[in-house]
Amino acid sequence: MKGRGLHVYALCYLLFLYAPILLLPIFAFNNGTVISFPLKGFTTQWFVQAFENATLRRAVMNSLIIAVSSSVFATCLGIFAARASTRFEFPGKGPMMGLIMLPLVLPEIIVSISLLVVLLSMGITLNIFTVIIGHTLICMPYATVILTTAFNSLDRSLEEAAYDLGETKWSAFRLVILPLVMPGVISSLLMSFTISLDEFIIAFFLAGNEPTLPTYIFSQLRFPKQTPTIMALGTVLVVMSIILLTFAEYFRRRGNARTGANNTGGFL
């Protein structure tokens, strides 16, 4: 009986957390337009309607462009920040790293409004590029955390051996260090891509007239007839997110296994 209460609590918590997500595919394949039981029958027409929707396809393309760009920029900046924080000591290192991590604790609504005011005051038109700026800002802390772990797990003697063999700092980084932290880089890319693809608040404020996938879904919720299509779209997003996070965790553990680091503290 020891620990039974904790097991029950964990089960109830997981049911509360994931039960709404499990309902998505159920109603996505339901033939009825009303989200209620009993189910009317099995159908795939909502997925077909979603695929044939031109506005939705445009929103998906915009979200993919934003997510890919944001993940690349955030990972590149994260490499610089992680490399500096793990390899060098310099004045103001702690406050600088704290500023990089600040978006983790700031409410996104505050970040969004601040960016909106700054961009408009600079005369910048709201479009996909402004969303990429916002998503890079919120993805960079996650990328930095992942890459800091990857750089911390490296054996510094490998870098010193490369210098002893005549390599420059750049060639040692490119030929020795970067390949060793590549699983962390891939994990950072996948994590940042997932965060950007699902992010709504910043896209809502900074996208202008360009729809993204989350903002499109939000705009369609006021139309009851569109609910089954949104359920189908939500099912696809959940599956994609699970796949991406699984790959991110796989590459994180693969990187830790190569360097002998601890596998605790993962995403899944």
From TrEMBL:
CDD domains hit by this protein: TM_PBP2
Chain segments annotated as transmembrane: 7-29, 64-84, 96-122, 128-154, 175-208, 228-248
Gene Ontology biological process terms in this record: transmembrane transport
This protein's name: Spermidine/putrescine transport system permease protein
Entries under InterPro entries matching the protein: Bact_Polyamine_Transport, MetI-like, MetI-like_sf
Matches recorded under PROSITE patterns: ABC_TM1
Record bears the keyword Iron: no
Protein's UniProt keywords contain Transport: yes
Subcellular localization, as worded in the UniProt entry: Cell membrane
Recorded GO CC terms: plasma membrane
Entry keywords, A to Z: Cell membrane, Membrane, Transmembrane, Transmembrane helix, Transport
Membrane topology reported for the UniProt record: Multi-pass membrane protein
Family matches, as Pfam families: BPD_transp_1 (PF00528)
Residue ranges of every copy of the ABC transmembrane type-1 domain listed in the record: 60-248
Superkingdom of this protein's organism: Bacteria
Family designation: Belongs to the binding-protein-dependent transport system permease family. CysTW subfamily.
